[in-house]
Each structure stands twice: as structure tokens, then as C-alpha cells.
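I would like you to help me understand the sequence and C-alpha cells below and explain how sequence relates to structure.
___
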Amino acid sequence: MYKVGIDLGGTKIEGICLDEKSQIVERKRVPTNQQEGYGSILNSISVLVSDITKNISDYSIGICTPGAISKKTGMIKNSNTQCLIGMPLKGDLEKILGKKITMENDANCFAMAEATMGAAAGYSVVFGVIMGTGVGGGIIVDGKIHRGRTNIAGEWGHHTLHQNGNKCYCGKLGCVETYISGPALEKRWFEITGKKEPLTTIVQNLDGTAGKMWKKEFLDNFGVGLANVIDILDPDAIVLGGGISNIDFLYIDGRDSVYHKVFSDLVDTPILKNKLGDSAGVFGAALL
């Protein structure tokens, strides 16, 4: 049987079809266009699945999405793609596609892919981090996703980093996501410098006073956030994913900031860069 994976991201939807040997048969990306609403996303996924399965008939479908399915309501919750919140995404897609699907949180799919075939292969307990449009995490224990009692295991992006801090879409104040997601980091740069610049430009201009201030704040928040995770989970490895994982200083300065804040006399948790790039999610979805 062929395996179809769909990665529903904040800015793009990627689809992949793998054969029985996990070789890529078809692969395609389309923009999410979340500003056009829930119905548009359903249509985009339907068209994408049709495009990548046009030459096959026997296939399974796994979909990864920001947020999680509520065990209470069956609806999407905790999604930074806010038009999905409160919607029966799994059920609607099953009706449209005419097939049963497996749906999982995007960070869980990322962590599964990296723990199975990526940077953390061979480690028993893996914490997979997504730092991009939002901040999320997934936990893999001995090759299996640990979802938790209510499907929120790994959601470090909504730990409170600063009490009474930045307002988050989730309704709380001071969430990790409001400090070290891509949009949050760009917003902070604008507050410091008055310049609206993309993150890729910002990280190339950190030599001045403003740059040093921005970087120190980023590293402090990154350090506290992941140190808290290590204190609770004590994983064998941490893998970074999402666009922010491409910032090289996170693997030296960032690692040191984390280590300095962990409650232990021995801190050697590997903080690894992903091997599968921004396609880890779609591979993880197919592996479901």
C-alpha cells in the first residue's frame, strides 16, 4: 500500500506519496492561504491529495496539523492557524476524501520523523521542537508518540515564560511562543530598532548594540524555555525544527544558555539540528 502524508502548515501545505519501500513517488506544495478561511484549506488539501494520487488507488492518508484534536469534542484545539480552532477537520476531510485518515499534531509528526529517520535516530526519548510561525513540541518514547492524557504533551510553546508578559492568541500572557516564534522575534526587532525586517536579515546584523540586545533576549528566553523542558522530561536528545532551527548560533550559544539553566550538575543533552528540513512533518504524517 502506498502512503500519503499531508503537512498542513501555517504558510504551506505539502503532500507526499511514498511507495512500499518509502521511496517518493509524488510530491507537491501549495500555499495555505489561511486568510481565505477554513473552507479554502479543506479544498486545497482535497486537490493536493487528488494530484499526488492520480496514478494510484490503494493508499493510506496521514495528516499533520497545527494544534490537536480535542478528546472531549473531536474538534481542533490549540492551533496557531486560528481558522481551524473548533472545527471538525478530521471528520470533514474524511467526508471529502472518502477515506479514513490518521491525524496528528505537526510537532508530533516532526518528532516521529526525526526520531525514526532523521537526526535523533537511535535515541530512546526524543523531544522534537518546532520553532517557526509558532512554537510546539512532540515527545517520542521508544519509537512511539507520547500524546498525554488530553493530547497536549510537549506543548512547551504555551508554558508561561514571563508572568504578565506578552499577550498570546491562546488567551494567556507570557507564553514561550510570544517571545521566540518567528513573528515574535521580528516584532521585538521592530520594537528595538524601528525596522520591519525578516528574521533572515536580522540574524545577519547583530554586531551593533541593538543586535546584541536582541540576541541576548532571544538566547535567555530560549534557554529558560528548553531548560524547563529538560528539567521535566530529561530527554535523550532534543531536535530543533522549523525556520528558526536554521539559526546557527542556537547550537552553540543557545545550547550553552540552556545548559546554564538546567537543574543538574551534569548537563549533556544533545541539541541537534534536524536532518529532514521543513519536510520532516510530511514524512512523519506518511509514517502514521
Summary: The chain has a mean pLDDT of 95. The first strand starts at residue 2 and ends at 8. The longest helix spans residues 209-233.
